[in-house]
Specification:
heterodimer, A: about 250 residues, alpha+beta, 5-stranded antiparallel beta sheet, B: about 220 residues, 8-stranded antiparallel beta sheet, 13 strands, hydrolase (chain B), cytoplasm (chain B), Pept_T1A_subB (chain B)
Amino acid sequence: CSSLGTYDLSASTFSPDGRVFQVEYAMKAVENSSTAIAIRCKDGVVFGVEKLVLSKLYEQGSNKRIFNIDRHVGMAVAGLLADARSLSEVARDEASSFRSSYGHDIPLKHLSDRVAMYVHAYTLYSAVRPFGCSFILGSYDKDDGPQLYMVDPSGISHGYWGCAIGKAKQAAKTEIEKLQMKEMTCRELVKEVAKIIYIVHDEVKDKAFELELSWVGEVTNGRHQLIPEEVRQEAEKYAKDSLEEEDDSDEDNM
Amino acid sequence: MLQETGTEWLSQEVKTGTTIIAVEFDGGVVLGSDSRVSAGASVVNRVMNKLSPLHDKIYCALSGSAADAQTIAEVVHYQLDVHSIEIDEDPQVRSAATLVRNISYKYKEELSAHLIVAGWDRRDGGQVFATLSGLLTRQPFAVGGSGSSHVYGFVDAEFRGGMSKEECQQFVVNTLSLAINRDGSSGGVAYIVSIDEHGTEEKVVLGNDLPTFFDQ
C-alpha cells in the first residue's frame, strides 16, 4: 500500500483507487502507539491501557491516557497524545453544552456521533491534518445500561462489546473474543482486562509500562473512575500469575 | 362607569389572562387551561387552546403575553423535533422543560410569559415542571396565570398524592371552574390534556358542563 505520486500530500485529494492517504497515514500513527482496550459487560465498561514508560525520570502517573468526559463517560486513547487531549476537550465541551441545553447526561451514542463528526471535518481540507488518534468512549446508565463506542481518525464510530486500538490490537482482539463478556460483571472483567494487557505487552521491544485501569458501571453508580487500589492490585496479581502459568506450561511442552 | 373611548384595546398588549394547571399521577400527567384571551377589557378570543404540544407526549400550558408564550412554545417544539432526531429517541420531559427555561431566563427582561411543561417519558414517567421567571423545578402539580391566585387555597387543600388519572382530571376541572368564576381574565371553556405511556388525549369541557359550586 505505497502511495502513488502526489496523491498523498493533502486530505483534500483522492487517489485514483479512491483512497484518502492522509487519513490512512493518520491511522498508522495510531498503530504505532501502545495498546488500549475496553470491554462492555453485563453491568458496566472496563478500560485498560498499556502506558509505555520511556524514561525512569518521569513522574509516576503522568501523561494519563484515560480521561473523564463528564461524570458518566470515560475515554481511553491511542495515537498522538496531544491530538487526543485536544479531542477530550472537544468531547467535554459537547457533553457540557448538551447538559446546559437539555438538563441531563448526554447519551453516549450522541456524544460519539458529535465527536466523530468533528474528527471527520478534519479529513476534508488541505489546510489542516487529520487527528492522529483513535479513542474509545464508555458509559453506564441505569436505564440504558453499559455502552461502548470507538472513533477512528476517519471520523467513523461504531458500538462495541469489546474493542482494542494501538500496536497490539490484533492480539488483544483475539484474547477479547475468548471472553463471554455479556455474562460477566465488572469485578470479574477487571482481572481479565489486566491479563490481556500483560499478555499483549512486548517485553523485548518495549521495556517498562504502567497499567492504567478504569471502570464505569453499577459498581460505581454510573460514575467513571480509576480503579481503586485493592481491586487493581488483585487484578495485576491475577494478570502476572496467569502469565507465569503459561510460561510454565510452555516449558512442560519441551 | 367604565370611561373608555372604545379603542384602547387596539393598543393594549394581548394577554392570555388565564388559568393553567398541570398535575402528575402515577403513570402520567393531566394538563388543563381556560380559553380566554383578553386585550385590556376586551375578550379577543373566547376559545383559545392554551395547551400547546411540544412533542408527542410533552405539552406546555401558556400564560402571560399571548405572543411571547406562543413563540416560546413554537421555538421549543422545533428544537425538540431536531433533538429527538439527533438522539434517535423520544425526548425527556426534563429536556423540554430545560429548553423552555433557557429561553425564559435568557430573555427574562424582554419576555412576559410563564409556561408550565408537563408530559410522560419512559425513564421517569409523568412529570410536571414550572419555569416561572426562568427557574426550573419539578413539582407534583403546578398552577399559573392570573386565575391561579384565586385557587391556591383550593389546590393546597384538595391535592393528594396517589390520585388516579380520572381523579386528576376531576381535580383539574374543579380548579379551572373555580378560577374562571372569580378571575375576570379567565373564562370560556376548559381544555384538558391527559398524557400517559399509551398516548395523549385532548378533551374540551364546554362552559355549561363545568362543575358548579355554591353560587349556581
